[in-house]
Amino acid sequence: MADAALRLTALAEELLGEKLPVRIRAWDGSESGPPGAPVLVIRNRRALRRLLWKPGELGLARAWVAGELDIEGDLYEALDLMASLIWERGPDTGDRVHPVRDPKVRAFAKGLLQLAGPLPPPPPPPEEVRRRTGTLHTKRRDKQAISHHYDVGNDFYELVLGPSMVYSCAYWENGGTLEDAQRDKLDLVCRKLALKEGDRLLDVGCGWGSMAIHAAREYGARVTGVTLSVEQAAFARKRIAQEGLTDRIEIRVQDYRDVRDGPYDAISSIGMAEHVGSVRFREYADDLYALLKPGGRLLNHQIARRPEKDESAYHVDEFIDAYVFPDGELAPVGRTVATLEEAGFEARDVEALREHYALTLRRWVANLEEHWDRAVRMTSPGRARVWRLYMAASALSFEHNKIGVNQILAVRPAEGGAAGLPLRARDWTASATG
Q1: Where does the Polyketide synthase-like methyltransferase domain start and stop, copy by copy (predicted)?
Q2: Residue 432 pLDDT exceeds 60
Q3: 299 with 407: CB under 8 angstroms?
């Protein structure tokens, strides 16, 4: 009798204490759950063994990446429904999954074991980052982490990001296309930095060179871009040559901690600080402060998380750490501003772009889905599945205010404390007051 889905539904509802909002289809063809709801497809019993050996998010992630779990129907709706049951277990929602000592948990595990069979766990999918060694956020380990995320093929990123090749939040000021919004974001950064002909700009974490090209072509800046990704640097240099801007832009494969050729008139750090880590963030702030001339501006564009009541309880998301951004960390925006000011900066403006990132991510997911077969050929089925899940789940997190993203404009004050900004903080096109 094909009844795996019914048994799984009964086990899950007993554990969670409420009805499942999604439908389950099991490997034996059986189905259970509300008609018309998104379907959680369990293609193979290996998915259950992964959960038994690695309960929680990492077990689910491994099954998803391996193709043993899938979603039929609206992916965003399914993730929303399941997040309320599985992942959102903070103090405001209640801990619905009981401690291991609870008889319900033991009964759930026993039921899964009966369905899964007493076999050893499958190995992790090859897309999972290998075991890391060495101290967190050393230069060597950071380079390995960046390579895992970015050196997966520039062609793949072109499919997802589109012609702009900007891997950070776009700025949806006037609607339009993704490329329009990314151009507007880059221009907003340049205007906040008050770039002008001949200014020296350091672009930390320069990606595929989009910010450097825009600043040099549209504002006449002389740009140094640094990245730890060899593939990004090669792609950026090719684009720069095609634009005829090699005399204005230098791209280096270099850790920001090794940049010693300041002072710079301005520094942009767009979507890079998430890689720095809490143990190194003050060092990051100190280094950028030292590289700026007095009166120079820093634009720090960074994803932020909500503060924890007990900050020591913060932990990195298991799926993100294992498959997307190894060793990446998020900090509350207040902590980021405070650290920049502790290093000597004056924070002059904070602009929240949370909703903008949700819109951006949905466009990236749509790009990936539209070119799915090509994306799989360029990387692997598992890698494409990682990016689809990561970007869709992140879009929901921004929409629900679980995380945000902010542009922080900070200044290294000149002698006597002058900041050189317009009197109206948001009037970025006005001339400096001195």
Answers
A1: 156-396
A2: no
A3: yes
